[in-house]
Amino acid sequence: MKFKLIFFLFLLFSFSCYSQCNSKLNQYAIGFNEIKASSFSFLDSSLNNIRIVGYGEDTHGTAEFTLLASELMKYLSEKHGFKIFVLETGFGEGQYLNDYIQGKRDDLSTILNEHNSTWRYRTKEFNELVKRL
Q1: Rounded distance between C-alpha atoms, residue 31 and residue 39, angstroms
Q2: 129 in Cβ contact with 73 (< 8 Å)
Q3: Is 49 in contact with 15 (CB distance < 8 Å)?
Q4: For residue 45, what is the DSSP state?
Q5: In this structure, how many other beta carbons lie within 10 angstroms of the beta carbon of residue 71?
Q6: Could you tell me the pTM of the whole model?
Q7: Span 71-124, pLDDT tens digits
Q8: Where are the domains of the chain?
Q9: Which UniProt keywords apply (predicted)?
Q10: Where would a tag sit more exposed on the chain, N or C end, judged by fewer CB atoms within 10 A?
Q11: What is the pLDDT of residues 3-45, one digit of tens each?
């Protein structure tokens, strides 16, 4: 009896996870063949008169999400004139990064490895994102 109950709950959970939002998600999801700034051109008509764009990620530190953020920042900057990038980090750590971006420092490796409290910003992809800014 216990096995049957566990099996039933597993099946119920599996079906409920699958049915959460797939049909709705398909209405709004847009796939990418490659992660390039030009891939975001579908946003052009939606960005008229928009001054703030929020970007969230499913996981922190994943290479693909950092590449996506980097290309999105490039697209927003080049095509729509966005110039401010807000990062989820501590104030002091953010100040070091801001100084680098503003040209007041030239030691990005030191900033990321010695003044940063989280591993997710010590990746090759994040390094490239900051260099692009």
Answers
A1: 9
A2: yes
A3: no
A4: G
A5: 20
A6: 0.71
A7: 999 999 999 999 888 888 888 888 999 999 999 999 999 998 888 888 878 888
A8: 34-132
A9: Signal
A10: N
A11: 555 665 555 555 555 555 667 777 777 777 888 999 899 889 8
